[in-house]
Amino acid sequence: MDLFDFAEQQAQQTERERYDELCRIINRNNELYYAKAQPEITDAEYDALYRELEQIEASHPDFVTPSSPTQRVGNDLTEGFRKITHPRPMLSIDDIFEHKPDKGETDAELIEFYTRLSSALGQTEPQVVIEPKIDGCAVTLMYRDGKLEYAATRGDGRTGDDITANISTIAAIPQQLPAGAPSVLEVRGEVYMPAADFDKLNEQRDAAGLPAFANPRNATAGSIKLLDTAEVATRPLAFLAHGLGMYEGAPLHTAEDFTQLLKDMGIPCNSPIIRAEGIEAVRQAVKDIDTLRRSLGYGTDGAVIKVADFARRESLGTTARAPRWAAAFKYLPEQKETILRAITIQVGRTGVLTPVAELEPVQLSGTTVSRATLHNQDEIERKDIRIGDTVLVEKSGEIIPSIVHVNKDKRPANAAPYSLFEAVGGVCPSCGEPISQEDGQVAWRCTNFTCTAQAAMRTTYFCKREALDVENLGGTVAEALVKNGYISTPLDLFKLSVEQLGALNLGTDDEVRRFGEKNATKALEALNRARALPLDRWLTAFGISSIGVTTSREVATYHRDLQQLAHSEYLSTLIRLEEDVNLYNTLNPKSRGNKGADKEALELQRRELKAAMEQQAEPYEKRGFLSLLPDGNNKLKLSNPLGSVSTRKLQAWFDSGAGQQVMSTLNELGINPISASYSETATASNGPLAGLTFVLTGALSRPRPEFERMITEAGGKATGSVTKKTSYLVAGEGGGSKRDKAVKLNVPIIDEETLLTLLKGEQA
Ligand code: IVH
């Protein structure tokens, strides 16, 4: 091999690496987009990655495998739905892109596509139809003998989820077709959410303390995959048909024949559909659709160009991913430069601090834009956004404006990097309590129970069934209570009178709607009952980060009442012991870090430390509240039934200003919740599985709840999902995703038999 071969190989190697990387990124984002409906990158960013992948594949056809993203359509399959095999695959469409004016013809790719069609069909001016590309979720409707047999998602293109019940909530979709219906008619189309309804839905969610949807497509994707059909019925979904799947009936020759059939059958059909012949007519139609689509009232991001004649479509056929007879022309989102005047911080209902760009107002897609979301600190750093910068603003999906990039040539000399934490001085701009970042999350949060910005959300949580179960004070009622100044923290509820609460206006100033005395009486009765609820329910109600229902119950097992928990010796001991165990393990004379150290001095220090720890641990160990164990290799291990993170978060909360405020208010109210499960000896923690967490997956020989009971009785915990903290994954046959996760996180995987051995208290 000479130098040039070598260089070539090296270049190939890096291209191969980039190719594999792109496949990984695109597959991951496909999953986020299709299955989770939570995209992390913009459509434009996705498109750029996809294009790069296509370019590499064009010069290296040998890289392409059937699992390449270009050979597959995305996958939206979700657990919990019956699967349906599509009689004909549900394909994707190949995208072609509008270019910026500085790079020649903006519609060069359109011209190229039409030219390709002409030569493939052997016609100079093939007839096509052009229609808006609806930004929704692909759904197929199967009618047999005029009756709706099922509705399904695209899934992986071959198999989809059966969402018939959810789709049946859309009134415009007929369950029964009129007389004369074809014996088999499979209609493909998009479920979407009209823009005005989307705004309304988000307002309602906001008022109920629920997170808003990012855009109508996400709202739609989330809605059609709900397992609760009654909830789907409250979502303003709509449907438009745009394609044909399986068909048995009077012959259809053209796109117009199909449209006519849909009209006759009363199925809502996409429009406008413009017929065009010859490149100039096609270009004009694509331009016309661009103008028209802005007044359609739902999201569109392109125009679909399809061969009009069905026999010609047949002759062109499809690739594994998309038909050769169609393309989606993607319009450039409108962008403009403006100046970033300031960054303000909004404290959301969930306590997340969101930076917002305050812009010099500009006109964009017909509306004035003066603010844009900056998402979080990471985003600001990634795009290096600074106050005073000239920024390029874009309205993606025509909904929420975002900042595409910074024009650094126009950056003022004094523009400094922005730090959210510093800008707010480390405290919540709403309540002044310290902010924090949850493990592995980029968002800064205020976790203060008494933060007024979060009052409605926290009150809703406080009143929910698993917490204090005060039905009818959550959601919109909590919102109204806060808005009208009745409460600014959940505990204020206990200071309300029947008269006050009854007079609460849930409507508007113009249209008053009172809460009413009857409801008020009920609510106050529930609050009265709540005073006597056990410790774990109150602890849940506080909404302390990482202390949910399960941990609250666990904590209550080890504390007599709230007063004792607030000054818990037990928590302090756990924290101190944990620190000491760490120190003990680092002082190991055999460990590499201690090479050359005075071994005897270390041993002496360790002996003293160990004796001190044993003394502290003993009273708790006797009661089965913790255990200090040898951990092989001359190390020690503390088994803490509450988990290290929860222990610290709990103590920090009771020590914080907010925690103390809560305690003193409860004192004033004469409330001191008692534990229902406290015992001087928490027997389970003596069990052979104490301190261990298990996840079950795959096919086991007995029902899962039975195994879960056995684990809990032996002092262990059984949880639903594999995390770093999982001690063992117990796997039967199958169990795909949990198994993968366990492998990734290095969680040991054991079989049923090994679990039984552990249950007997023997080593695995
Ligand atoms: S025709 C076999 N027409 O966009 C594909 N699709 O990104 C032929 N879509 O899977 C589809 N509006 O779900 C067609 N007017 C329209 C469309 C449309 C939206 C969806 C469709 C397709 C996806 C590809």
Question: Features of this protein?
Answer:
alpha+beta, binds 2-(butylsulfanyl)adenosine, five-stranded mixed β-sheet, 26 helices, 6 domains, five-stranded antiparallel β-sheet, Helix Hairpins, D-amino Acid Aminotransferase, Chain A, domain 1, 38% helix, 764 residues, disordered N terminus, OB fold (Dihydrolipoamide Acetyltransferase, E2P)
Describe the structure.
- This protein has 764 residues and is of the alpha+beta class.
- It folds into 6 domains: 58 residues, Helix hairpin bin (Helix Hairpins, Orthogonal Bundle), CATH 1.10.287.610; 236 residues, DNA ligase/mRNA capping enzyme (D-amino Acid Aminotransferase, Chain A, domain 1, 2-Layer Sandwich), CATH 3.30.470.30; 89 residues, OB fold (Dihydrolipoamide Acetyltransferase, E2P) (Beta Barrel), CATH 2.40.50.140; 84 residues, 5' to 3' exonuclease, C-terminal subdomain (DNA polymerase, domain 1), CATH 1.10.150.20; 121 residues, no CATH class; 67 residues, BRCT domain (Rossmann fold, 3-Layer(aba) Sandwich).
- A hairpin with a 2-residue loop joins strand 4 and strand 5.
- Helix 13 crosses helix 14 and helix 20 packs across helix 22.
- The site of 2-(butylsulfanyl)adenosine has 15 residues, from strand 3, strand 8 and strand 11.
